[in-house]
Design brief:
This protein is an alpha+beta fold. 57% of the residues lie in helices and 22% in strands.
Length: 157
């Protein structure tokens, strides 16, 4: 009996599929790399748990990395970088002046400020009850007071 396309083109590449997902490839790109149609890709994903698990595992790692980067960007952070600078050395020996330059390196701390765009994105998604653009406000008005107010407004004119 001939093996299915899943058995020949997909199952042997489950680890590779996980790596492609981790690298950020789209489902369409992964299907293309496997030599299968998108329809087959989604069928296999629904029918073969090991295929779905490879995709999820790969995407999960990248998602966590992006979440952490967004969080870090939202708060701001300090990074240490190596900076190169020239040092000029002047030597006077027996009335002769000699100059030589060399490159030295030193650590420099650079502060990356918090990014308000990242903060807004984070809050709208993590706390939509408080930060969504359109807030739903529930109001309760006593009908008796509303009627009195309406009558009063008519008489004010």
């Amino acid at each position: 009996m001939a093996k299915s396309k899943y058995e020949t083109n997909v199952k042997p590449k489950l680890f590779l599929i996980e790596m492609w997902a981790r690298d950020g490839l789209t489902d369409e790109q992964i299907a293309n790399n496997l030599g299968i149609s998108e329809a087959s890709f989604y069928n296999y994903r629904n029918e073969h748990i090991e295929f779905l698990d490879s995709l999820k595992k790969g995407k999960e790692v990248s998602d966590y990395e992006v979440e952490n980067a967004l969080f870090k960007k939202a708060l701001g952070y300090t990074v240490t970088v190596k900076k190169a600078f020239k040092v000029k050395e002047v030597i006077v020996k027996d009335g002769t002046r000699k100059e030589r330059e060399r490159i030295e390196y030193a650590d420099d701390e650079i502060h990356i400020p918090a990014d308000t765009g990242a903060q807004i994105f984070w809050l709208k998604n993590r706390r939509p009850d408080k930060w969504r653009d359109k807030q739903e406000v529930e109001t309760k008005i006593n009908n008796g007071i509303l009627e009195e107010l309406t009558e009063y407004m008519k008489n004010v004119k």
